[in-house]
Design goal:
By secondary structure, the protein is an alpha+beta fold. It has three domains: 9-63, Orthogonal Bundle (Helix Hairpins), CATH 1.10.287.110; 69-166; 169-277, 2-Layer Sandwich (Alpha-Beta Plaits), CATH 3.30.70.330. It contains seven helices and five strands. Strands 1, 2, 3, 4 and 5 form a five-stranded antiparallel β-sheet that branches. Strand 3 (206-208) and strand 4 form a beta hairpin. Helix 2 (22-36) packs antiparallel against helix 3 (45-63) and helix 4 (65-110) runs antiparallel to helix 5. The chain is elongated, with a radius of gyration of 30 Å. The termini are close together. Its main location: cytoplasm. It is found in: Cytoplasm; Nucleus. Residues 86-130 are annotated as: Disordered. One of its GO terms (biological process) is spliceosomal complex disassembly. It comes from Caenorhabditis angaria.
Length: 278
């Protein structure tokens, strides 16, 4: 599942700066997984599961260099807008103070005028100050509304792109039999399969005793993924068995591939596919 709109992936993983290496991001992700793993939080399992999934989404988002760069640029734009608004508010406060000082000066001048002249001048000054303050207010309101509209537009576009990508993303189910803890974790699987194409996300690993499996979802723009289904894993590690459950487009020079029939899938495989898609 893509990162939720408005979520801060750095904050979720406990990272205080955007200038992080992939190693630091991976380390922070593993720390959050250990902290919020549902098996270690049986008394608060609902929140733990939510935090565990949230950490996974944040990790996958930051591990995608393109998405991370776009997010950092957007956050920088927001920071600049907020800084400008702060400066404008400071100027508005300074303006208000200057008007108060000017009012004190006017009071001294008014003392030298006739009552009619004083009333007329005070009325003119009040109207002028009111007009100037209204202009400042409208300017700040207009800039704030424009920024809100830009943010909402970016959120809608991101949501639409995520929905479209979810429908067309190639998905590979990967299985192996683990012995004495010699299996694969998410980072190792990513390193093995990213040679075939850009990975969008990897589902949580489903374990049934020693049998493990997960879903690897590739970016929908990747076209030359064939070959990932015959990957056997690393030497000295359990042998991997992989199968497409949502196949990538067939290359023109490739033999037409037979699609997978979901009705023929086992309950475990179907469960893995569903979990991979949410």
């Amino acid at each position: 599942m893509p990162l939720k709109p408005g979520a801060n992936p750095y904050k979720i993983l406990g990272l205080e700066t955007t200038k992080c290496t992939e190693k630091e991001i991976t380390k922070a992700y593993r720390a959050q997984c250990l902290k919020w793993h549902p098996d270690k939080n049986l008394d608060n399992k609902a929140e733990a599961e939510a935090r565990f999934i949230e950490a996974k989404e944040a990790f996958e988002f930051l591990f995608d260099e393109q998405k991370r760069n776009e997010y950092d640029k957007a956050e920088e734009r927001v920071r600049i807008v907020e800084e400008r608004n702060r400066e404008r508010m400071e100027k508005a406060d300074e303006f208000s103070e200057s008007q108060k000082r000017r009012g004190n000066t006017v009071d001294d001048d008014v003392a030298k005028m006739t009552p009619t002249q004083a009333a007329k001048k005070r009325k003119l000054d009040e109207n002028r100050i009111r007009d100037e303050m209204e202009q400042v207010r409208k300017q700040l309101e207009r800039e704030a509304n424009e920024e809100v509209q830009r943010q909402m537009r970016r959120v809608r576009e991101a949501a639409a792109e995520s929905a479209a990508a979810e429908k067309s993303a190639p998905k590979l189910i990967v299985k192996w039999v683990e012995k004495d803890g010699d299996g694969y974790d998410e980072v190792e699987l990513r390193r093995i399969f990213e040679q075939y194409g850009k990975i969008a996300q990897i589902s949580s690993i489903i374990a049934k005793k020693s049998r493990k499996k997960c879903i690897i979802e590739f970016e929908p723009t990747e076209k030359n993924l064939w070959g990932a289904e015959i990957e056997q894993g690393k030497t000295g590690k359990p042998e991997i068995a992989a199968e497409w459950i949502s196949a990538p487009p067939v290359r023109k020079d490739a033999e037409k591939q037979k699609g997978n029939d979901l009705n023929q899938m086992s309950l475990e495989d179907l469960e893995a596919q569903i979990l991979g898609g949410i």
